[in-house]
């Protein structure tokens, strides 16, 4: 390989490394994983809320059922007093009848409250089940995309390393002077070497004198563009 051919190869590998590094940066920032984490947290919060609500409602139901039992007992007691035939006093009888009516009203109120709570429990149990299912799905998705991400990143690192090794090998066949000139140009220009196309430098688009152009085409020495200072490379047809 001619010197300029080697330099061009180095430049191409460096460009590839640059692309991989950008991709790597993008993957490391991973928006997709971030969004998944957020959804997972939201679902987790929902689950905790449903569980807490269910616990509170179940406790309320238990308490109300206990109260209902007591009232039923009281109703039974009032009832037996009313129909025992022992009470002949009208005032006392009316008082007892009112007591019974109040207790029955209280009973109905309690039963309605319990029913409402039971409906809430049913709805929240369903919601909890759904949230847990979604949470599980999200978790699986998160894990697999995390794994994918790691695999892709490892692959990119491997490819970068391979390209760096190729560059190192190519550099060994170059003279130090040429190499340091290339490195210096790279500091000033992102593209230190440009192709010669139709006797024009593709770096600055200026025409190259035909004598210079033919030197470039021979590839025996490194020729620089008079205008932009870049190294010039001519791609042979058989390449
Ligand atoms: Zn130029």
Automatic annotation (TrEMBL):
Signal peptide: none annotated. It holds the Pfam family Zn_ribbon_9. Keywords: Coiled coil. It comes from the Bacteria. Residues 10-180 form a coiled coil. Residues 200-232 form the C4-type zinc ribbon domain. The keyword Iron does not apply. The keyword tRNA-binding does not apply. Residues 15-186 form the CT398-like coiled coil hairpin domain. This is C4-type zinc ribbon domain-containing protein. The lineage of its organism: Bacteria, Bacillati, Bacillota, Clostridia, Eubacteriales.
